[in-house]
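ESCALATION

Customer reports they have been waiting on this structure for their group meeting. Please prioritize. Original submission:
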Amino acid sequence: MNAQRTLNHPLRLPLAGEMHARPFMRIEPPERVLHLALFAGDALDRHHAWLGELCECFGVSAPQRGASYFFHDFGPWRLKWENHSEFSTFTFAFRGDGTGDFADDLLRRLPQAWLAQLAGHVISAAQLAFAAAAGQPLAANDPWLRTQFSGPLIAGARVMAGGEVWSDFLVQPDGVSRFLLRDVGLREFQAGRLSQRVLEIDTYRMMALLALPVARECQPAIREAEAALAAISGELAAADSPEAERSLLERLTRLSARIEAVAEANNYRFSASAAYFSIIRARLHELREERIEGVPTFGEFMERRLVPAMEFCESVRRRQHELIERLSRTDSLLRTRVTMTQERYNSAILASLNKRAELQLRLQHAVEGFSIVAISYYLLGVLGYGLKALAKLGVPVEAELATGVALPLVIGAVWFAVRRAQRALHRGHPPEEPAPALGGAPR
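Update from on-call: job pushed to the front of the queue and completed.
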């Protein structure tokens, strides 16, 4: 046995247990079920605290912290507790009296002090009456059916090839929705599965609708941002100066940050709503509804009431993401224009620098020519003074003639010496290549 455990991956047994977690509660008509879904948001510790306080009222040991499922028979009723990511559910099963109606207020059978502290957290409360029908289906125009529901529209269907479900999906004056289930020919354990699926449909319906007010609240911000983006796009086409482009870029950056903040705040709620809606459709499919003439099925009721709300939320979410993509494209375009403007400005600066360098080079060449003439002039002057001194000493030489003859030689020698000095200087410090203009080829 120990060897077998050592062969297992550390997560094998916990993951295998997930397939058997949250089993169906066994329901046997006639029975009454009260289902409370408590929304806690980020306060996950409250889920276990509520359960622990309820167990303490009856002297029952609460499950360990971190547990996600708990079942116990408290005597007057059985309790199944499940902990989800955003909410927890308390499902109380009361043994019925055989009437199969909603005459008794099940909330009064629970500890009232415990119920009082749940104020503000109940997102869904449903009462389910499960009655045995002995193979006798209920007609849509049955007068007794109208006494059980107060809503003008009742939805109903034959489900799972042996049961019936009825509800008006309204919150009654006692704060609880009503669901009537009838066992026309269900097999063993089907009653528990049917009860859980119906209760899950009601719970996930409310959890999915939490995105509706969020979508309505962020819609004005999206409309305002779309109008601002359209104005920026129009001004971008007419912008003709770097200052105007930089101003548009600042406005666009602030707008993008504002929309990103809105999307970050509601993205989780929209994603969760879509996930809950997928579960609702899966549970409706598992019911295998068959029409009862005169009333809509649960699936048809959801298609008319819930689907439009979910499509509205999805449209707001889609508009939000499309707006972010448009802002990103506009930002990229505007930054490209600003970059191109900077490149043109840099190119103009480099062209001006190149022109100044050319002028300096020409000036340098002119100065070099003057320097050769000046050096040659001084050398010829020194040579003339020397020749005149020789003539005074009696050396037969014509000073003016010799100076004239030496003129080209001196100028040539000076020019050669200057060029040689320049070549030596360039060999020690090679000239740098001129920097190319941004976006263009080297000049």
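Sent to customer with the following note: The beta strands are 31-39, 69-73, 77-83, 87-95, 122-132, 155-159, 163-171, 177-183, 290-291.
Escalation resolved.
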